[in-house]
Design a protein that fits this description.
Helix content: 40-55%
CATH topology: Rossmann fold
Order of helices and strands: HEHEHEHEHEHEEHEHE
Number of helices: 8
Mean pLDDT: 96
Distance between the termini: 51 Å
CATH superfamily: NAD(P)-binding Rossmann-like Domain
């Protein structure tokens, strides 16, 4: 083997080994897959979720597989709780370099429903305001990191719209706008801010949809003709978080099997 083959020709690292990362909504679905993937890649993972038992399971799985993870119960709608947990994560791990804003809820309501606002308020709070809250709490730690990455999880609802989903759709459009604005604001500090927009993905949120209905929808609407997996979304998130992803910011990436590009 030549010296160039041994040492490599590139200078930018694709390793997150030993890098501290905090993932919200990590007890299940895309958050869990993201935590597992980062752990597989050697990152030090803060598994956070409002579901304590789910957090414990994810931490146990990662630890059993030889990874490094610690769990925290986190309600992303709780200002004081967010600040406390983020500071504890940074103190425990010796810093924080990557924030993945993944926590979410499924919210649907027709605009004319008498209790519409009971759906609207938590949708905006959990899906949008919580991401602002997490960034604000994490920012002092990200500024002190050797490199810093923020990855916000939105949805293809951030590009288009679905009937009876205006609270969810408005929040996801907000995440897209937030990502773009923070990319511009934090760019001079070399903190990148990017957004992943999953399309039809097999998670707990879509578990109530029958396999037959999923197959019909996927064949009719996506280029690949299938639902995606949570791990496929996780890999997109990881790519934005790599040290080598240093010139990508303000990107809005659909992970949707070609849903957005298909006309017919």
């Amino acid at each position: 083997m030549s010296s160039s083959e041994m040492n490599g020709l590139s200078s930018l690292s694709r390793s997150v080994r030993g890098v501290p990362v905090l993932i919200t909504g990590a007890a299940s679905g895309m958050g869990r897959a993201t935590a597992n993937l980062f752990a597989d890649q050697g990152a030090t993972v803060a598994v956070t979720d409002i579901n304590t038992s789910g957090v414990d399971r994810v931490v146990a799985d990662i630890t059993a597989a030889g990874g490094t993870a610690t769990g925290w119960r986190l309600d992303v709608s709780d200002d004081d709780g967010v600040t406390r947990v983020v500071d504890e994560v940074a103190a425990t791990f010796g810093g924080l370099a990557i924030l993945v804003n993944n926590a979410g809820i499924a919210t649907f309501a027709a605009i004319g429903d008498p209790d519409y606002m009971e759906t609207w308020v938590p949708a905006i709070e959990v899906l949008l305001t919580a991401q602002v809250r997490m960034v604000r709490a994490a920012l002092p730690h990200l500024r002190a990191a050797p490199f810093a990455r923020i990855v916000n999880i939105a949805s293809t609802e951030g590009w288009g719209a679905t009937r009876f989903a205006s609270p969810y759709t408005a929040a996801k459009h907000g995440v897209v706008g937030l990502t773009k604005s923070l990319a511009v604001e934090l760019g001079p500090e070399q903190i990148t801010v990017n957004c992943v927009c999953p399309g039809p993905i097999d998670t707990a949120m879509t578990a109530s949809i029958s396999d037959e209905d999923k197959a019909v929808f996927a064949k009719r609407r996506t280029a690949l003709g299938r639902y995606g997996s949570a791990e496929e979304v996780a890999h997109a998130t990881l790519n934005f978080a790599l040290p080598s992803a240093s010139y990508m910011t303000g990107c809005i990436l659909p992970v949707d099997g070609g849903l957005l590009v298909r006309n017919a």
